[in-house]
What we know:
By secondary structure, this protein is an all-alpha fold.
Amino acid sequence: MKKFFSINNLLNLFFVTIFINYSFFLYRIISRSNPWIVGDWLTNYENGLVRRGFFGEIFLFLIEIINFEILNILFLVICLFAFIFYYFSLKIIKQSKINYIYLLIVISPATYLFSFYDPLTTGRKEILIFVFFSYYIYSIKNEYSFSNIINNCLFFITGICLVLNHEIIIFFMFYPLFIKTLLIGKYKFILIKSEVLFIVGCLLGLFILALFSNSNDPNTPNLICEKIISFNLNENVCNGPIKDTYLTQSVLLKFINHTIYYIKNFNYFYYFYYFCLFLIAVIFIFLFVEKPKQNKKLFLFFLFNILQVIFLLILFIIVNDWGRYLNIYFITTSLVLIKFFKFNIKYNNIFAKTLVLTLIILNINSWNMPHCCNKKFGNGIFSLKERIEIRLNTANGYEDKPRQILINFLNKF
């Protein structure tokens, strides 16, 4: 019984649970042709180069060849991405000497519980960023990792492809270089060539979009939509990001005015919540990371994260779905901590163990980070029933048995 409740088994159970949760809500979202998720994945180059159309162009080309049902294949492909990400995450955690501190980091509403508390975060394109970063962090062994010419080319191409898939990678493109820097004793350019080429690839991809994107043609959204609905999909799938593939000067001006209004009217008191979260993490790391053996790595870690947080402030202020991008930051930073830093904490008595377990339980249940809109923390498990009811009762007219069973069950409480 004691072995069954070991940390290893608890981690296995946790990742299996969140993968099942991810797959369940992903299927419901895709089966309803959600325009903000399905439409985003299926954006294509039917009328020339547009932002976020790289995956959709390749995917639709392959679907035409194999002639399978498009939504089922899309569901399986995204599930595969999620499985790879969770698999490498678990392997990274198990590479280290696991203790309850890792549970405190991993089982958090800001990291792997993010999609559990907000199902609308499932199936988003940042899963590709998670796959790349988790594979990189798991696979890197020393300063010579990924230093050959093949990896140089692959990292360069990966940078271009990720930007053409979703330009948000620009805000996180320095992570591989930072990670390699943690391992380098004496700096040699050849050791960081792949990571630098990844940054160059990201910037080149952004330059290609800026220079060659066909976003000034008013017919672009319609032609993209026609290509998608030719696969027997509901035209509702086009009522999301696909409309943003047409950008005129008036649209850009409207966006700028919206941004200025948003900054002026934003309640900056919400920054206090996230500053506290960051401050608690800094104090926690400073107290429990082994020193002085890791002083250099610790300095680089804090310096990079300060710069990264400042970089992310742009997204936090302007965009609606800011929580998704903070989730990328928290998960990637957590994996770096687990992989490259040793935590020196001992449970000498039952009080210490009880305290850590209490912190874990409070961290899991007492709050959650929304993926968009309101920048205030949610109430965690205490508002879970309300959030599920909202999702179920705004299902866009879809009636199905599982939904009705859940509604009946929740009405009993």
